[in-house]
């Protein structure tokens, strides 16, 4: 007998199986994100990249530019709306399959309000907390990235330091707000392969538990 009880109703919110990566600017989230994005069954979103893909002459592109060049966060309502549209578009394009892919969020949520706004869309399985006690290591990485990636917000030392303060004030408090059993601390002051190894130590069991991976 056919029944519609398992079909999502139009008004129902999607629920994405998710992992969040939290860490300060320059800690290596971008490097790890690119590596994770290569793994079948993982769909990685970097909010910074999502914003940088906006047409810089569009209204939203201009808003992003205005905030990013000052090292400030884009307002929450705009950020969350762009994120929702982005995920939905990727699901429609079948680049992201919520039924088989773990969603890895990097750079969003960036504060408690954003966490509250996106929470209804997520089944949050882990929070990867990338830690590097040495601020100067991170500033050094950002200086290197400024040249390689031509990022304006990375070239001005004062803006870089301001972003660090914003992280401390707005983003780091998230770690105390999530259930502590979800937090996985990753030592980011080591070689990228070791950081990846630690992150996979958290993610692989989740993927195995929540998704039946197709044989490759
Ligand atoms: P980083 O982690 O090195 O600071 P990102 O690429 O994540 O750099 O972000 C660059 C800029 O994009 C931020 O300074 C901010 O202006 C904007 N941004 C990215 N993610 C968010 C977010 N979740 N909320 C608000 N602004 C964001």
Features:
single chain; 216 residues; alpha/beta; Rossmann fold; five-stranded parallel β-sheet; globular
Describe the structure.
By secondary structure, this protein is of the alpha/beta class. It has a single domain, classed as P-loop containing nucleotide triphosphate hydrolases (Rossmann fold). The protein contains ten helices and five strands. The chain has helices spanning 29-36, 47-52, 59-68, 76-92, 112-118, 135-149, 152-155, 157-171, 174-177, 192-210, and strands at residues 16-22, 42-46, 102-106, 122-131, 183-187. Strands 2-3-1-4-5 form a five-stranded parallel β-sheet. Helix 4 packs parallel to helix 5. The longest helix has 19 residues, at 192-210. The chain is globular and about 45 Å long. The protein starts with 15 loop residues before the first strand and ends in a 6-residue tail after the last helix. Mean pLDDT is 89; it is low at 1-10. Residues 25, 47-48, 51, 67-68, 71-74, 79, 107-108, 110, 114, 153, 163 line the site of adenosine-5'-diphosphate.
């Amino acid at each position: 007998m056919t029944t519609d009880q398992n079909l999502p109703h139009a008004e129902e919110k999607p629920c994405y199986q998710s992992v969040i990566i939290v860490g300060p600017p320059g800690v290596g989230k971008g490097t790890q994100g690119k590596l994770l994005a290569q793994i079948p069954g993982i769909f990685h979103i970097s909010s910074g990249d999502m914003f940088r893909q906006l047409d810089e002459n569009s209204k939203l592109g201009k808003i992003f530019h205005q905030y990013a060049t000052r090292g400030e966060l884009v307002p929450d309502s705009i950020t969350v709306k762009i994120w929702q549209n982005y995920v939905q578009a990727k699901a429609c394009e079948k680049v992201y399959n919520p039924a088989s892919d773990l969603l890895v969020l990097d750079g969003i949520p960036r504060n408690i309000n954003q966490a509250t706004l996106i929470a209804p869309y997520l089944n949050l399985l882990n929070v990867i907390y990338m830690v590097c006690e040495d601020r100067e290591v991170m500033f050094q990485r950002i200086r290197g990235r400024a040249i390689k990636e031509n990022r304006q917000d990375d070239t001005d030392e004062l803006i870089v330091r301001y972003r660090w303060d914003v992280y401390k004030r707005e983003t780091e408090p998230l770690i105390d707000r999530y259930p502590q059993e979800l937090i996985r601390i990753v030592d980011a002051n080591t070689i990228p392969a070791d950081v990846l190894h630690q992150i996979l130590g958290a993610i692989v069991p989740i993927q195995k538990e929540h998704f039946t991976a197709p044989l490759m």
